[in-house]
Design a protein that fits this description.
This protein is of the alpha+beta class and 182 residues long. The protein contains four helices and eight strands. A hairpin with a 5-residue loop joins strand 6 and strand 7. The longest helix is centred in the first third of the chain and has 22 residues.
Length: 182
C-alpha cells in the first residue's frame, strides 16, 4: 500500500489580479474575485494531478509498506528529504533513518530514494519537500499559462456539464511536462 498526502502548501503561482486580466474582467466585485481565485486554485490542483507535478512548494508525506530498495518519489520536482522513519507492524516508531548512511537521494529533478537496507513487517514514512517555487525551480511559463488558460476555460464553461475537465489545448500544452516513470 502507498499513500501520499500534503502536509503544507505554498502560495498560488498565479494571482487573482493576473487571472482578472486574463479573463478580461475590469470590475472590482469581491464575490467575483473570490470565485476567480477559487477557480484558479481548482485549475492548478487539476493540472497538478494531470501532470503528476507540484506547481507550488509543498511538504509531502508518503507512507509505504513492502517497498523496493530503489523508490521514485512522486510529484516532483523533489527538493529534499525532511525525514525517513520506519514503524513496526503496530504503528510504533522503530527508527529514524539517516541520510547518506541508511538512504541516499539520487537524481537532479525527479529523484529516487535508495535504501541501504529495509526491514520488513512495518512501513516507512518519508516526509519530503517538492514542487516549483520561489526557493527552488521556477514554474515554467508554459505551466503558468496553462493555469490561466484552464481558469478561463472553467470560467467560460460555468454550469456546462458537457465541458471537458481539462481544456484540450491545455492538455496538449502540458504534455511535455507530464511525469513518466519507467
Amino acid at each position: 500500500m502507498r499513500e501520499v498526502y500534503i502536509k503544507t502548501e505554498g502560495t498560488e503561482p498565479v494571482t487573482t489580479a493576473e487571472l482578472k486580466t486574463f479573463v478580461n474582467y475590469l470590475g472590482s466585485e469581491a464575490d467575483f474575485e473570490t470565485m476567480l481565485a477559487a477557480l484558479g486554485s481548482a485549475a492548478r490542483l487539476r493540472l497538478e494531478q494531470y501532470t503528476g507535478r507540484n506547481f507550488v512548494e509543498k511538504t509531502m508525506v508518503m507512507n509505504v509498506d513492502e517497498m523496493p530498495f530503489n523508490f521514485h518519489l512522486p510529484f516532483g520536482p523533489i527538493r529534499d528529504i525532511v525525514s525517513v522513519k520506519t514503524y513496526d507492524e503496530y504503528g510504533v516508531l522503530d527508527e529514524t533513518l539517516t541520510a547518506d548512511d541508511d538512504y541516499y537521494l539520487i537524481g537532479d529533478f525527479d529523484k529516487f530514494i535508495k535504501f541501504e537496507t529495509f526491514a520488513s513487517g512495518g512501513y516507512v514514512s518519508i516526509e519530503y519537500r517538492a514542487g516549483y517555487g520561489e526557493n527552488t525551480f521556477d514554474l515554467p511559463e508554459a505551466m503558468e499559462y496553462a493555469i490561466k488558460r484552464q481558469t478561463k476555460y472553467d470560467f467560460d464553461n460555468r454550469g456546462n456539464s458537457e465541458a471537458e475537465a481539462i481544456n484540450p489545448t491545455v492538455r496538449k500544452l502540458l504534455m511535455p511536462y507530464r511525469a513518466s516513470y519507467l
